Structures are given as structure tokens and as C-alpha cells.
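If you are new to this repository, start here. Below is one unmodified record pulled from the training split, so you can see the exact layout before writing a loader.
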Amino acid sequence: MQLIHKKIRGALTVATCSLLGLNSVLADEGEWDIDTAVLFYSETDRVTAIEPVISLKREYEDEKILSVKLVIDVLTGSSASGATPSDEVQTFTRPSGEGSYTTESGETPLDDSFKDTRVAVSAQWEQPLNRDYNGSFGSNISKEYDYLSLGLNGTLSRYFNNRNTTITTGLSYAHDTISPEGGIPQEFSSMAQEGFHNDFNASRSGNDETKDTIDVLFGVTQVIDRRTLMQVNYSFGTTEGYLTDPFKILSVVGEDGRANDYVYENRPNSRTKHSLYWQTKHHFNKDIVDISYRYMWDDWDITSHTFELRYRWKLSNQDYLEPHFRYYMQSGADFYQRYLLDGEPLPEYATADYRLGELTGITFGLKYGRTLSNGHDMSVRLEYYQQSGDANADNAPGILQQQALFPNVEAIIFQLSYSL
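And here is the target side for that same chain:
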């Protein structure tokens, strides 16, 4: 999945609807808050996703809070395989080993059989431990057709300076099981041709693999004045296990740039990530500005910068507009390469998945919200996303100099929320 799959879980923070920017509404005589929303995401000629969300939150005595969230993702469409385009028709065996698909001349190879449904449930309990400490712990489970994720998390917060300063530490653990249709491919084994089941079975190393992820968070939140709030976080994460995408391949090209073979990718079996995050919110007389920046680096030689800006413009006591802008810039992994050259020794690791390449992503849009006469809240959000990279390589062999090796991805995001 290009943008929104498998990692839509805020394991280090209290489970909320912040992913969709929802507002809470009081129900059942103040005992429950209920948030509902539907998100629609569509890439041009690629993946389409529909994601309904419902969140429940109940406050008990002594400031104890229970939060529960249910998310359902329905995804269909086409996903880039990693192979290079060509000046001739290309035929690929599907990941299951059953059937094939073709790509026309000059087009990015896309597997049009992409289809999945994900159901995720999370629960979080939060309560004061004493006057100066607050704690929370939670769990989550996410199930797809070929993917199962189980997670636990907890946070501890300490208040200082008359609760104007909060220091928070968090820890989460996730255990994932990957069971792709057709099994786990052996690294750099050749993609078998349709109908050659012996060759296909010989390219498999098993039915499933696992990986384990541990994330740690250290953060400080400071009330600057009665209108300004600032937050600074440092997070550290390490993942061990199967990190290869079993559905991605690389083209092995000759001097003319045409593919002589297609092989399955191979990634390192560990990854360590660090990130620094800063956010400031300021409340003007009526409006609110929210600005943030995140810097991430890892041992795959990827670095990224994320700048985000929201401005809530209050039109009246019932209406507001919220423009949104996000800019993302990423360097490529040290083992990212768009193709392999026939006759040269195989590298230890290689992937043509452009999500691990050098890229830039821009998101901008607008949200409109209104409090209705019956006290209910509703909002509508529409955004546009574009991802781009270096489409051409000067040193590419043969016909690849005329092919788009890093195609742009465009998507429309529409979200409707209603507070019952």
C-alpha cells in the first residue's frame, strides 16, 4: 500500500481520533464521548481505500478514562511491483503463483489484484497515580488477510511547575506475523513464469515470518502562557525480524535496458529509527495556529523532514475553516536501487520500492466544521496529495533513459465526520 497501511496505530500515545482530526461529542448524559468518521482515499489509477472509524471514551470518577477505537480499512486497486517500465509489453506472475498480469509499453508495472480488508481494535486506560503522576496503558490488535499485529503500550507522565510542565515517557511493543498468499519468497530468487509451479515452489522459503518492534518516547510539554502551548519529543524505535516486502520485485536489465529477469527484493532484518518532534499551538482572540516539525533518521541511511501547518479560522460561533499544509522530504535508503544489472554480482540488500527512495510529498487542503442547532458537530475535509521523485537517471542503460523510473503519485483525501 502506497501511503496508508499497516502502521496506522499511535502506539506511544493515548488512543484518540487525532489521526482524522475528530471532535468529541457528549452522549449518554455525560458518560460517553462518541466520535464517528469515514475517510475516503484514492490514488490516480492505483489504490483506493475506505476507512470508517468509531471511537468511544468514558470518564469515570477520579479522572479515570477508558478509550476504545475501531477502524476498518477496505483497500482495492493496483500497487507498484517495483519492476521498471519498458518499451515493450511485460508479463508478470501474480504473488500467489496463480495467474498473471501484463503491463503495456511505457507504463509503470502495477499489480491490479491488490485487495485487502483490515480490522483494528485498540483500548486504552488512563488514570492519575497521585497528585503529580499520571499513567496509561493499552493494547491493540490489527488483522488483515495476510498480516496480524498485536501490541501493548504504556505511558507515565510527571507534572511540575503547577502543572505547567509535563514530562512524559512511553514504551510500546508490537509483534507482527506476515503470511502472504503464495508464501515467503527467497531473497533474489527469480519470479517463476505462470504455469511453472515447481519453479514457483522452489522460490519459496516458508509460509510466514515475524517481526518485533519496540518504541520508546521521551517528551516535554510546556505551557508558555495562557495562549501558547509547546511540545518537544524524542523517540527511538528498533525493529527485528522480517522487514522485506514479499510482493516487491526488481528488474534485472541488460545493456539495452530491457528486463532479462525479475527477482524478489531483500532488505536488512533490523532497523533502528530516531526522531525529534516539535509542536507549538497558539490561540489568538478567535483563531488557532498549529505548527510542527519532525526530523527522522535511521540506520538504513534514510533521513526525513516533515513540516506541518494548520490554521483554524473561526467564522462564527458555529462555523470554522481549517486550511492544512504538509511538506515531507526524504532521502533514499542506502540499498535502494531502481534496477539490477545483468551479469553483475548481486548486492547483499536491494529494493526498488520507491517508498524507500528519495522523494518529496506535499499535502494541502481545507476542513470545514459546524456546530448544528441540535448541538451535534459535523466536519468535512478535502485534501490533495502529491508524491514525486527523480524520474530519470542519466546513467540508466538503453531504453531506461526514456522511461519514468520514479512515477508521480497523486491522491485525493476526503473525510466526513459527525458527532452523534
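Two things worth knowing about this chain: Confidence is low (pLDDT under 50) at residues 1-30. The CA atoms of residues 105 and 367 lie 40 Å apart.
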